[in-house]
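In response to reviewer comment 3 from the previous cycle, which asked for concrete evidence that the modeling workflow produces usable outputs, we include below a single protein chain processed end to end. The sequence was submitted unchanged, and the resulting structure tokens are shown without manual editing.
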Amino acid sequence: MAFVQGAAGRLRLSEGGAGEPTIVFLHGLGSDLEAWRPVLERVRSSHRAIAYDQRGHGKSDPAAEYTVDALADDLGRVLDALQLRNCWLVGHSFSGTVISAYAAKHPEQVAGLVYVDAVGDASRAPAEVKVYFRKHDEGMTPERLRESYVEMLGPKAKPATRQSVLESSGRMDLKAFAALRASMVGFDGIAAARAYPGPRIAIEVAGNDVSVPASRLPATRQILIPNVSHWLMLDDPDATARAIEEAIR
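The workflow returned the following structure tokens.
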């Protein structure tokens, strides 16, 4: 464990393993690097792998600004601090927008993108979805935030997954939730995809009813994993690690 300096404060980081290509893991909204721990333990046998807590999450510092672009800037600071080039970026859920934003601005720095049940282009989501997010997120409280994650976990999440997700979401900077979801629905994922010519693979939950999946981005290959919740890396780390290995071949 270590800390690097992000654009607005310290970011807690975990680095380990050896072997190319290097893989950088970004957790989703309300999570932290510990969500990737079971997968990191598996991929580090053959790859250098890095994960970090994004601003306002886990043990990283909170910030005054929470936007997709700000988190993409933090990602750039992590890559620069570790002198990483030509690595694969893996983003879960909301962080599909973060890896897309970074790759669009720095395509020469990225070997490929892996979206893990991640957002592709929420800017083209139905109007009622955007209205729901705005109304739902107004005046967010810790109690309502917990209720939101209980609902998102659904019936397929394992008990250990449920506990981990609820604990990590309770540690996030509360104001980050609404701010990042608002930024997410304003992010043009299609334009970002067109600006990055490298490979894109979407690892997604079979049967998951997501209105803006990354598999709908242009030239994006899909890999499905059955019988898991949205937090598939916790429910089935073996299958998730295998899918990531398949994606980056």
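The radius of gyration is 16 Å. We consider this sufficient to address the reviewer's concern, and the full set will be provided in the supplementary archive.
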